[in-house]
Amino acid sequence: MSRIFLLRHAKASWPEPGMRDFDRPLAPRGIDDARKIGTVMRAAGYRPESVVCSTALRTRQTWQQIAPQLDVPEQNLTFTDQLYDSDNARYIEAVQSARDADSVLIIGHNPMIEDVTSALAAGGSDSAMRRLSKGFPTSGLAIIKFEGSLNEVSLSGGYLEDFLRPSSHPHGDGYM
Questions:
Q1: Distance between CA 176 and CA 169 in Å, rounded?
Q2: Model-level pTM?
Q3: CA–CA separation, 22 vs 54, rounded Å?
Q4: CA 77 to CA 53: how far, in whole Å?
Q5: 32 burial level (CB within 10 Å; 0-12, 13-18, 19+)
Q6: Contact by Cβ (8 Å): 10, 61
Q7: Among the listed residues 101, 97, 99, the one whose alpha carbon sits nearest the alpha carbon of residue 80
Q8: Looking at 23-32, 113-122, 152-161, which range is the least confident one?
Q9: In whole angstroms, what is the distance from residue 34 CA to residue 9 CA?
Q10: E strand intervals along the chain
């Protein structure tokens, strides 16, 4: 069994005049939410073996806030441009790039994080599907499990095991 953790970056600040979207930093609320989702992941036992993160500033800063909670070795961390302004195929390639791991955390952007979640998970637990149907907020985390390895991941081949938000309680129903 393998797992994919799909995390939408935390809340970003609005761009300053002349600032590129790519360079937007996290807002204070985003920093707090990223820390919270890291804490929720750790408490729930959701610790990926590998991480693939967009190179955009807000995704890198999201990773910096959750990294202390997850203890992922530096050699299992990859930053890539292919997750910024991309498509489903690039996100699937990012998942498959973690060949030697049983679990990978992808830190990216909407609308692709939401689209990839829908494309990979043919179904899921009722509570996770219900929470996801309300939208994929910043710092939202989809956990999708697959029977095979990550390099065998296919569209509609997964099961949405859980869907968390920063306010999620690790021992409740995953949504507060």
A1: 7
A2: 0.93
A3: 10
A4: 8
A5: middle
A6: yes
A7: 97
A8: 152-161
A9: 8
A10: 2-8, 50-54, 77-80, 103-108, 121-124, 141-146, 158-164
- Which residues 6+ apart lie within 8 Å of 97 measured at CB? 52, 78
Position of tokens 């393998």? 2
Q: Do 146 and 1 meet the contact criterion of CB atoms below 8 Å apart?
A: yes
C-alpha span between 95 and 36 (Å, rounded): 24
Confirm if 115 and 108 have CB atoms less than 8 A apart: no
Domains of the chain: 2-164 (3.40.50.1240)
* Whole-angstrom distance, CA of residue 162 vs CA of residue 76: 23
Tens digit of pLDDT for each residue in 4-45? 999 999 999 998 999 999 999 999 999 999 999 999 999 999
Whether the Cβ atoms of residue 164 and residue 44 lie closer than 8 Å to each other: yes
Q: Phi, psi (5° rounding) for residue 49?
A: -80, -25
The overall average pLDDT reported for the chain is: 91
